[in-house]
Amino acid sequence: MSLANAPVLRVDGLDLFLDAMGRRLHVVRSVDLDLRAAEVLGLIGESGSGKTMTGLSLLRLEPENAEIVARTLRLDGADLLGASRAALRGMRGRKIAMIFQDPVGAFNPAKRIGWHARQVLTRRGRSPWRPAALDLLAEVEIADGGRVLASYPHQLSGGMLQRVLIALVLAAEPQLIIADEPTTNLDNIVEQQILRLFRKMKRTHGAAFIFITHDMTVAAALSDRIAVMYAGEIVEVGPTRAVFEAPKHPYTVGLIRTSRALHEGAERLPEIAGDLPSLADARLGCAFAPRCPDRRAECSTRPIALARVGDEGQVRCLLYDGA
Amino acid sequence: MMAGGMMPRWMKRSRSAGGMWHTFRTNRVAQVGTTIILIAAAVIVLVGLFSPYGPTGNDYMNILRPPSLSHPFGTDSFGRDVLTRVVYGAQVSLLISFAGLLLGGLIGTVIGMVSGFWGGVLDAVTMRFIDLLYSFPTYVLALCLMLLLGYGSRSVSLAIALIYVPNFARLSRSMTEATRAENYVTAARLMGQSPARILLREILPNIAAPLLVQFSAGLGFGIILEAGLSFVGLGVQPPTPSLGVMMADGKDYFQRAPWVLTLTGLSVAWIILGLNLLGDGLRDALDPRLRRRLS
Amino acid sequence: MKILLYLGVKVAGSLAMLMVGAAVVFLLLHAIPGDAAIAALGEQASPEAMASFRLQHHLNDPLVVQFWAWASAALTGDLGKSISLAGGFSTASLIAGSLPNTLFVGAYALVLALAISLAAGSVAAARHGRIEDVVATSAAIVTISMPDFWLGYVLVLIFSLGFGWFPAYGFIRPGESLGGAFHSGFLPALAIAVPMAGIFSRMLRASLLETFRRAYVVSAHAMGFGRSFIFWHYVFRNALIPYVTTIGLQARYLLGGVVVIERVFGVPGVGSLMVDAAFARDYGVVQGCAVVFLLIVIAVNFIVDAVCGVLDPRRAG
Questions:
Q1: pTM for this structure?
Q2: What range defines the domain where residue B273 resides?
Q3: Closest chain B residue to the Cα of C142, Cα to Cα
Q4: Domains with residue ranges and CATH for chain A
Q5: What is the interface pTM, i.e. ipTM, of the complex?
Q6: Scanning A37, B11, B192, C92, which has the fewest C-beta atoms within 10 Å of its C-beta?
Q7: What is the CATH number of the domain that holds B112?
Q8: How far is C123 from chain B, CA to nearest CA, in Å?
Q9: Where are the alpha helices (DSSP H) in B78-203?
Q10: What is the dihedral of CA A51, A52, A58, A62, to 10 degrees?
């Protein structure tokens, strides 16, 4: 049992390299993360920002052709980097769990939901498993638990499957839950239901969350802190309110401006000109510099570290360095 | 991980044919296959040109000699040089198989494309007949056809064609059905292009590649089919040398002189191996998603 | 309940296909030029003998009537009499005598092919990219490229004439001696099985490799399941579906191979009978054999469909 404010997750200098088609891609670049119990961190970024890979790394579920390097990668004190396969397997589904973007893809299509529930619950020592399963399904607001347990995954809707997945995750009472775009494929009503469930989990089970998404409003609704990723790097971290009301990094500024315009129903959306930089090349200086309206000459000459700004925020930008 | 809405590569217009060619050219399997075929072709050409022996022409002094320098594959029961006969026989077998595959491929593809494009009752009924045709064991179908048409090379070709019609029909139908919904096809329909034109100019180029893979795989099996039919006595008739006829001949004195049948069969296997590797290389050059449909 | 309905529809469809197939064969064989009466009795026979022969075999009736007579008799097990091959014997008895041998060798071959391919395909996929995989994959494509009857002879050369472990020719019926049948049937079954095993193992390997990359496998890892558990229940279980489907697709080639192998090894099966009947121009027997073969393929496909329906809940539902 960790203390209320003790760090659940400590990540220091996490790098992930992908060997694809003869090239080495530097997909995650020196990422630092800290997370405490019952804290929700919203990890925001567009496709290709490295957010999903970061999430997978925490479970050590990186793909076969990937290599992970880190100074520190600890979950509740346990080292994830050097851990044996058996140790990792022991942690997955128990101390750390993952909720995927495509709920249909999370289940074995050849087996009923009840089979999944039995596998998860008997491994947690909950035997007989059926009453426990029905309890969990009720907790995620599924009305007819018996029918769901008897169904095959393809017979249930995406929203229903996502709730079942959350129920299975709850069964383990993990300390850290990584949710990778869990509501992207669901319609708005269902999305609200799922978000409500997440809030309940945070309240009653005290789980820490990393909520990976590209949707700013969803992140804002749930998170205590926000981290913004761009091209594999974390460019800004801070309390949700601070980041949204007073964004520092030019990329964050652009994102929030676009998001706001979207929600206010503007006719034209402000655009961030330019493209993502290549993940293969070495990088000197700021990744965003070529697209940044406030760039200076020295932005592309030297590596820029995350600098403190305000009470709890950090930014990787020369505009705030030394401020 | 892929951005949503990205079209599978094989569905794009054949702009990507160039990319496919490059992949094929660098693919190791295809290279090995091509090498094998080239070696076989070289042997066929060289022996055909320079062999002092003919495919027929008995030499009773030299019956059933084991392989030696003057007869690399030995001689058969008539004293004929086996290597020369294999070379001629290979040409005959290849020709029969090619003709049969071509005919079957054309008919099957047309049936499949028409069926897949129009759908509905026509599609359902046609494919049931195709399924029925596919349910007959290969030699059973061939045998009935040989009885109907008489023996000989032409009948064997027709039998091979009939056997392969369902393969091509099924493949082209499923591809056509999938491509039918594509944007460029809809655009062509709206522009008022005739269905025949659409099938020929829009759909066919995009489904051609997997059909080619099917063709190369079928070519190999066609040779096996011809060999089997002739071996049983229902195919090409002697003295025309085909690989099957030679193996039928070789079986009669197999215990005394196993090299005739063994080496002939080995040559068959060599050629077919080359064809299969080529086909595999072709298949690898396509989008991997396609491979499952072709297996 | 849904499974029963699904199976019921399949049975009806199979029976319909069988009837249509029989009709097609019937039409095909009756289109053959030449007079059956002349073929049976010889050209010297008197016109009266030929006329009575034609009457006896209903050769003057319209084709539809002839087919209907044949079909209704067939349903009761009467496939007519052999005209020229084994004069006087009923076709049904000829086929009944040879069918067990064909089924034995065919089933033997199928079991061997499955055993080899399940092992080879799994190993190749598990050791993907390594030496075991390369060896297995190369072996597979080589075996697919060889004519099965040629392989039969090579096997005889090595294991019969060479080592003397198996008989080179001749087949002991399972009715006489089961052990003898297994012994004498091994080489013929193996000759058919090896190319089939090549095709099946390639399919299984590809299917396993594809299933490894599926999202639900990653998810299973995330739930903390063990590797061998995931392999059997997630990967293998789902990869079986395309594998079993392939078995159905290969049935026509498997049985085709049986026909030729029966000649090579002297197995007195339906294939051998059919070839002999073809040479003797005894079309009634050819037809009977063709329909029986069609029935076997349809039955195999039916079983494959049923198994797939069980393996893949998305199909029936």
A1: 0.83
A2: 48-63+77-294
A3: B273
A4: 7-95+174-315 (3.40.50.300)
A5: 0.85
A6: B192
A7: 1.10.3720.10
A8: 19
A9: 82-118, 120-135, 138-149, 153-180, 183-190, 195-197
A10: -130
